[in-house]
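Batch job 17 of 40 flagged for manual review because the log was empty.
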Amino acid sequence: MPTYGSPEDVRKAIEELRDALPGKNRVQTSPESLQVHGSSDHSYHPSCSHSVVVMAHSTDDVVKVVNISRKYRVPITAYGGATSIEGHFTGFPSGSICLDLSAMNSILEINEADGDLRCQPGAKWEDINNTLKDRGIPLFFPLDPGPGATIGGMIGTGCSGTNAVRYGTAKAEWFLNITVVLPSGKVIKTRRRARKSSAGFDTTKLFIGAEGTLGIITEATLRLAPRVPTKVAMAQFPDVEKAVSAVQQILNTPYGPNIQCVELLDDHMMAAINTAGVVDTPYPVQDTLFFKIQGSPESIRDTSNVVQEIVQTHGSTRFEFAATEEEAGEMWENRKYAFFSTLATHPGSKVWTTDVCVPVSRLPQLVYETKEDLAKAGLKSTIVGHVGDGNFHALILFKDEEELRNVGAAVHRLVHRAIQMDGTCTGEHGVGVGKTEYLVEELGEDTVELMKTVKNAIDPLNLFNPGKVRNPTSDGGQR
């Protein structure tokens, strides 16, 4: 079986990288840079620094780095917005190269007539949508994970976001094609730009959710959607189970397709938003659903009437629209920055964020049991969720090692609870190193073995982001 390079091989690889990519700060080995690129302040899984950080500016740069990685048997990990929280970009013990793609952030081409655009992997989804808006183009890219997420990372983790109930996830049809550098150093384009194709395997989807273990993305063609008039509304409930139960009934009505987003913020999260001081007028502290309702004025009116009737039958004590566009924007911004509000509310604490997803009908039970479990364990938490598709996030606070161990145990129970409900250990965060232990339980040994077979066929030396998605190697260097 092949082994990874020795410390001397790593040193030679770094020297060759400096020759191949001359220029200021293109190849970095300072302790500060290695630490930043190998760990995250928001991840509490085992981490390891890289041996070197390389700044890529083009596909040709990536090919050069991949070839040097293969020559000296030094693992390589792609790095973008650094927003992932499951240890996706941590280094490897025998030595590794971090390939920073954040400078490859250009929008290369916008095809308004075709409703698509081509960009580099370091482009951020917010910047893409702001660019389209600033240019007066009535289109947007609907996948909206956390602030700062880049297209490369979104593809790698198979991301989702608040719009998933209406527009689906990364594993739908939002990536028409991607350009990928394989472990062999070959550059492939997964398909042409047509909206659909029956030409063989869907190799685009092979790389979506692979977390950089099969290839490094250097370009992507994104499908865009038309901007539709939208109004934001809020409904509040006496308990979280009633709030979540209302959602499925709403989505199953003929007006369900007019719901762009439906988000849950539990009472603890609403209190955190108030305490963090990010709202002009504090919200009542109750379990709350935020809705985005889209369509013509008539569609919005009719859908809103149906939503209001249904939430009232589930005990809603308040339903109201944002009075202005500014208020609507503020309400949604508060949802997107839930993590920072949670952190700001508890000075000196840290937050472990995790997510699971279950069939929508099981979500009320899952959320209710999770809140009970966290309270019984004496842990402070907030809960937010994309409840329209059965996905929710628990943000659990801790201050010391003992509480951290309790949080880890609570996350473990949450994941098993979700899998037992025919759900998944990760709705949109990805596997990384944090969720690898659950894959066999969720997917079965044969399915995981098939994933390993694909990995071994494309990356026989196991150089691309080893230890992620599949179980880490245990010998620190041998496969």
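Reviewer: the log was empty due to a logging misconfiguration, but the result itself is present. Confidence is low (pLDDT under 50) at residues 472-479. Unflagging and moving on to job 18.
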